[in-house]
Design brief:
3-stranded antiparallel sheet; about 15% strand; single chain
Length: about 170
């Protein structure tokens, strides 16, 4: 028996679609959830099934990545990222890391960033997993806001967006 360190990462999501006619931007796609499982005891000749989650196309969530199979104690699921908000939907979607909220088409509207679901997984997938929420678009009174929230990452929450400013006020990725 040997000890191995295992890194499992879900597929990243696609960003949301903006509206050229309304000069709004889609939210950033969330990163896939990340799991670092150090010191797993495994036999050298032990076969392990691994499924790699693909990245999402525009407005599509990333796929889940799995390591092992249930009911093994080292069965791990890294959730795919949540897709970025688009128009007219607005809100970013939940995932391993959440997608960012889209820029608004109307005055004072808000769009939430998607929540992270990685920590809600059972067993080591949640206990050892990391993911953060997407950033939101917080309104601000401009009919054409341009900006959008950044997708969440493995290191931080996605940046909040606000109208105006550099880069049209878009939030940074987490």
């Amino acid at each position: 028996t040997s000890e191995v360190d295992v890194l499992v990462v879900g597929g990243g999501a696609g960003g949301g679609v903006g509206s050229a006619g309304n000069n709004t931007h889609g939210g950033g796609g969330g990163a896939g959830g990340l799991i670092l499982a150090p010191g797993l005891a495994m036999d050298a000749d032990e076969a392990v099934t691994v499924t790699i989650g693909g990245g999402g196309a525009s407005t599509t969530a990333g796929g889940d990545t799995t390591f092992g199979a249930a009911p093994s104690p080292w069965y791990l699921i890294a959730k795919g990222g949540g897709d970025g908000g688009d128009q007219p939907r607005g809100d970013g979607q939940a995932g391993g890391s959440g997608g960012g909220g889209a820029g608004s088409q109307s005055a004072n509207a808000e769009a939430s960033g998607g929540a992270t679901t990685q920590g809600q997984q059972s067993g080591n997938s949640g206990n050892l997993g990391v993911g953060y929420a997407g950033g939101a678009f917080g309104g601000g009174g401009n009919t054409v806001a341009h900006s959008a929230g950044g997708g969440g990452g493995a290191g931080a929450v996605g940046g909040q967006a606000s109208p105006g400013g550099g880069n049209y006020g878009a939030g940074n990725g987490g």
